[in-house]
Amino acid sequence: MKKLFACLFSMFLFVPLLPQANSSQVIPFRMEELTATQFVSAIAKAGSVCVIPLGILEKHGPHLPIGADLFQAREVAFMAAEKEYAVVFPPYFTGQIFEAKHQPGAIAYSTDLMWKMLDETCSELSRNGFKKIILLSGHGGNNSFLPFFCQSQLASPRDYIVVLFQPSPDEATQKAINTLKKTKNDGHAGEEETSMMYVIRPDLVHAEDAKSQSGADQAHLKDLPFGYTGIWWYARFPNHYAGDGSQYNKELGKLLLKSDADQLVELISYLKKNNTIETLTKEFYSKAGAPVK
Ligand SMILES: [Zn+2]
Predict the structure, then answer these.
(1) Which pLDDT tens digit goes with each residue over 197-245?
(2) Domain-located, residue 283
(3) How many whole angstroms from 193 Cα to the centroid of ligand 1?
(4) Counting Cβ atoms within 10 Å, is residue 188 exposed (0-12), middle (13-18) or buried (19+)?
């Protein structure tokens, strides 16, 4: 009772001092958390920018969760949206992952479906008022698919734009990353990815298992002259693991996430203020409709 009184008393004392709740301050950036009413305000607050973090379900070495890419992509989006408001799309797992079909846990949708899912997600976002869509991929297997998807936006006129986020650490950050890193061969589920996962969800990092398989480059096709083949990744990393995830550190993980998030903030604020892509695209479509006059 004494406690309740003290509690009520302190509420009486402090509540009037709190800032007045302002609807623009409390609108969540995670789309799935918005009410339909907030959704309308969110479009305006976001300058019609929606970020789709894309993950995948695939083996991540012997020690990381199969959804690791989505955890990382969403973390970057959340960190950025906190600084520069944009709406963040719910968990999205549809992408290109044929190269991991020989390993447990790969959900490898067909090319038709991965294309349609993304195309219809973008057009549905547009129908709902989001006209500037940022694709944020946490997954290396999308590195050919997503630029092709963006390029294909020019095939026919549409009332929204799609931009692929392509971060690249600045010189100072890259120097700091190099200083912190212990491994030279680092890629899928290696030092960087394990470090980021350790920051986001340390309970899902099973570093004690990281050395149970080899993440070394097997280089089976190193003699193939001037050729690209779909089996290239398997030829190099048949364990679907590149690097050494036992070497990780929190500082590196934080730095990598912050570097990406800061650059995403720049992209979001550019798109909020700038309509150059829309203007050029419109001009392009009008000329493309009748190239010969
Ligand atoms: Zn990954």
Answers:
(1) 999 999 999 999 999 999 999 999 999 999 999 999 999 999 999 999 9
(2) no
(3) 6
(4) buried
Centre of ligand 1 from the C-alpha of residue 259, in Å: 17
pTM listed for this prediction: 0.90
- Each residue's pLDDT tens digit, 51-91: 999 999 999 999 999 999 999 999 999 999 999 999 999 99
Distance CA 129, CA 218 (A): 48
4 part of a folded domain: no
Confirm whether 55 is domain-assigned. Answer: yes
**Residue 211: CB atoms within 10 Å:** 15
What's the chain's average pLDDT? 92
Lookup: tokens for 81: 């949206």
How far apart are alpha carbons 238 and 215 in whole angstroms? 9
Identify the domain containing residue 68 by its residue range: 25-273
Distance from Cα 253 to the centre of ligand 1, integer Å: 13
Predicted pLDDT of residue 22: 52
Number of structural domains (the chain) is 1
Q: Separation of 272 CA from ligand 1 center, angstroms?
A: 29
Q: 171 C-alpha to center of ligand 1: Å?
A: 24
Per-residue pLDDT tens for 36-54? 999 999 999 999 999 999 9
What distance in angstroms lies between residue 69's CA and the mean position of ligand 1's atoms? Answer: 4
Residue 155, in any domain of the structure: yes
Neighbours of 41 (CB within 10 A): 14
**CATH (domain of 172):** 3.40.50.10310
28, 91, 293 from 129: Cα distances, Å: 17, 20, 35
Sign of torsion over alpha carbons 162, 158, 93, 44: positive
